[in-house]
Amino acid sequence: MENLNETILAVVLDVVQEKSPEIEAVRPDQMLVEDLGLRSLDLARIIAKLEMKLDVDPFAELVAVTSIRTSGDLSAAYAKCFSTDEEPAPEAANRPRPPRAGLASQRELRQKARGEQSQ
Amino acid sequence: MKTKKESMTAERQVAIVSGGSRGLGRAIVADLLRRDMIVATFSRSKTPFIEQRLAADPQAESFHWASIDGADPQALAGFARDVLRRYGRIDALVNNMAVTGDGLLTMIRDADIHAQVSINLESAIFLTRACLKGMLPQGSGSIVNISSVNALRGHAGVSIYSATKAALIGLTKSLAVEVGPAGIRINCVAPGYFDSDMTSGFTDDQRARIARRTPLRRLGTVEDIANLIWFLLSPEAEFITAQVIAVDGGFVG
Ligand SMILES: NC(=O)c1ccc[n+]([C@@H]2O[C@H](COP(=O)([O-])OP(=O)(O)OC[C@H]3O[C@@H](n4cnc5c(N)ncnc54)[C@H](OP(=O)(O)O)[C@@H]3O)[C@@H](O)[C@H]2O)c1
Description:
The complex is a heterodimer. Chain A is mainly α. Helices cover 45% and strands 0% of the residues of chain A. Chain A contains 4 helices and no strands. In chain A, α1 packs across α2 and α1 crosses α3. The longest helix of chain A is centred in the N-terminal third of the chain and has 18 residues. Chain B has one domain: NAD(P)-binding Rossmann-like Domain (Rossmann fold, 3-Layer(aba) Sandwich), CATH 3.40.50.720. Chain B has a 7-stranded parallel sheet with strand order 3-2-1-4-5-6-7, sandwiched between helices. In chain B, α2 crosses α8, α4 runs parallel beside α5 and α5 packs parallel to α6. The longest helix of chain B is centred in the middle third of the chain and has 29 residues. The chains are: A mainly alpha, B alpha/beta. At the A-B interface, α2 of A face α5 and α6 of B. The complex binds NADP nicotinamide-adenine-dinucleotide phosphate. NADP nicotinamide-adenine-dinucleotide phosphate binds next to α2 and β2 of chain B. NADP nicotinamide-adenine-dinucleotide phosphate (NAP) binds next to α2 and β2 of chain B.
């Protein structure tokens, strides 16, 4: 589990540093959008990188990607793939959905409202 | 993030071409191999072309083929994963595989409608998604969707085929906006009629009529189309995305 968390934090840091090279470390409780400045495409890149490393994609069926707000949520989602428990753990995916849709930033939401992304 | 040019010089580029056993797909595979790319392709059945290529490269250093039914999304995802494992990257994807069905809409069997939507459209979506999982971490990639002049100009008897080919244009335009910031380009090529198994049912009269309606007065060749595909995949096109380019001798005008 230790390893899984470290792998996830390393991949998140990798993507964060592409935009903000001054950030030297990330913590599991930091919000990916609000604290780390990521956008939905960045999350897609993190998930693709993790699929290459871990060979699993929890978001294909197990977990709703909209429930992911922190690196800790990511860890919980991947832990689910490797868990042998039948009972689902009370973690990120089972929390009530956050009021904002997934990882859309305020700017993305504003753009959407102006009809720039889709009609 | 590495530019396409930088990553081109680093390692041999890897391309996936759907339906590379004959027709245009075969020409694309041969062309990309000639340009020193590693090419992975699939079809349901093996043709002499595939057998020849496999025999020439038994270690699959440059050429990989699998027998896959493109209607199966899991098989498509598995194929892309296998290519990533074998070669470590996916730089290019050509969504070429397609089927056609002739007939007025009210007379087409349900199964034929489903087959065209599934192979021509859904499979392209699933394969694209699977390949993006390789391209996103790289921060580079180029995708070409093979549409058709039928998507740009109406013809009786091919409404479903045209609908699927027009849908690829919508897919291309929105996805280009979505993945452009990650360094991935996606374009559409819309070929005019060219000789292949798909058009083998055309009579000489039909061929002559198409040539007459084409300003350049002939049908296309697979090479005409493969040339543009290579250009779009190559670094020469690194500022081109979200475009639909017809290779049709001026047919749609
Ligand atoms: N020919 C034209 O005049 C023309 C004009 C405009 C656009 N296009 C487009 O150009 C592209 C190539 O056309 P083409 O004329 O070269 O076609 P083609 O000669 O009929 O070849 C189609 C290829 O797709 C493969 N394929 C078909 N169904 C499949 C399935 N279910 N699973 C896996 N592979 C499958 C075939 O292999 P198997 O059958 O062995 O599976 C074959 O390799 C298509 O997108 C077509 O719509 C063609």
